[in-house]
Specification:
The protein is mostly helical. The chain contains 14 helices and 5 strands. Bound molecules: tryptophanyl-5'AMP. Tryptophanyl-5'AMP (TYM) binds next to strand 1, helix 1 and helix 7.
Length: 343
């Protein structure tokens, strides 16, 4: 059976949005709404796997929904909603908790990074997080998920859960009239520059919502002066820019800044280097700052306006949740029957 091409992605409301979220995710969501059925979620149930102040959680939930719209997502084309309004996510994730194996979760590098030395004392939700993520995706029989590089392992696990469910319940799936698989084997959509935007201060670390140093992260709501200052002070090296992408090998900070330029301007890295190859940082950094401000400032302005209009935001999120539920409910009805729950 062919699956309807459908795209789903989500962002956690656990901190201020930054350039990595924009380039690795949000910017790439926009064109997909022209070619696919698209669902973009604010995954508030994922956020609470680590402690969130409830007021911050609400503020960041609105901020992400506003960023989606301000960046070009159209609520009449894309389904925009927050996860906790569609309880089927939680229900399917419980079933997946019973399909997935503890060993699969233990191998997740993000879990290891986040739990660190303290893995006995993190929430049970943090451990089971990838199972909820698989539920987000498979509840809509999603065929493609645009994400940054750091989510690739979670997408592999989503495929493993889909395969095991399809295998374990093969007979019931067939009895329900499905010739082959019930869940699709979802593709990860993660190609192009800036799939892993690095910290501006350390090319070995990714830019992240939880970085302690403010100077390492460009936030989507930063004003023009702050963006320019952060780029000017970004760590770089002494050499001029190379003529081709190959010349960036072993120069993590340079590779990061050129990749950001390429992604922001919709150009290839080689194309950017045709313009800047042989030039120094004194020429490149101001051009990058101007470019970043020209892209981010209008989005930040629109985000500000939208977050100030709670009535409109609530309306958009409720409408999105109702449309998401209309897809999710028939799937959950079938899943309940497949696993043998009496209704
Ligand atoms: P989250 O909230 O950490 O990040 C949201 C999106 O931003 C991307 N991203 C980056 N891309 C490039 N460079 C960076 N430095 C960078 N930092 C973050 C992430 O790859 C992601 O695409 N588990 C997910 C949320 C989620 C989800 C889902 C995603 C829950 N359910 C279902 C897709 C489908 C997360 O924590 O993303």
């Amino acid at each position: 059976m062919a699956f309807t091409p459908r795209v789903f992605s989500g962002i956690k409301p656990s901190g201020d949005l930054h350039l990595g979220n924009y380039l690795g995710a949000i910017r790439r969501f926009v064109p997909l709404q022209e070619t696919h059925e698209t669902l973009y979620c604010v995954v508030d149930m994922h956020a609470i796997t680590v402690w969130q102040d409830p007021e911050d959680l609400k503020r960041w939930t609105y901020e992400i929904a506003a960023a989606y719209i301000a960046s070009g997502l159209d609520p009449s084309k894309s389904i925009i909603f927050n996860q906790s309004q569609v309880m089927e996510h939680a229900e399917l994730s419980w079933i997946f908790n019973c399909v997935a194996r503890v060993g699969w979760m233990e191998r997740m590098t993000q879990f290891k990074d986040k739990s660190g030395e303290n893995s006995e004392n993190v929430s049970l939700g943090l451990f089971a997080y990838p199972s909820l993520m698989a539920a987000d995706i498979l509840l809509y029989k999603t065929t493609g998920v645009p994400v940054g590089d750091d989510q690739k392992q979670h997408l592999e696990l989503t495929r493993d859960i889909a395969k095991k469910f399809n295998h374990d319940f093969r007979k019931q799936i067939k009895d329900l009239g499905f010739d082959e698989d019930y869940f699709p084997i979802t593709e990860t959509l993660a190609t192009g520059p800036a799939m892993r935007v690095k910290s501006l201060k350390d090319g070995a670390r990714k830019m992240s919502k939880s970085d302690a140093s403010d100077m390492s992260t460009i936030y989507m709501m930063d004003d023009a002066d702050t963006i320019a200052k952060k780029i000017k002070r970004a760590t770089s090296d002494a050499a001029p820019l190379p003529e081709t992408a190959d010349g960036l090998a072993g120069r993590a900070e340079a590779e990061n800044l050129v990749g950001i330029f390429a992604a922001l301007s919709n150009r290839s890295v080689d194309d950017v280097l045709i313009e800047f190859g042989g030039k120094g940082w004194g020429a490149f950094k101001p051009a990058l700052a101007d470019l970043a401000v020209s892209v981010l400032a209008p989005i930040a302005g629109e985000m500000q306006r939208l977050v100030g209009d709670r009535g409109e935001m609530d309306r958009i999120l409720r409408d999105g949740a109702a449309r998401a539920r209309a897809i999710a409910q028939p799937t959950m009805d079938e899943v309940r029957r497949i696993v043998g729950f009496i209704r």
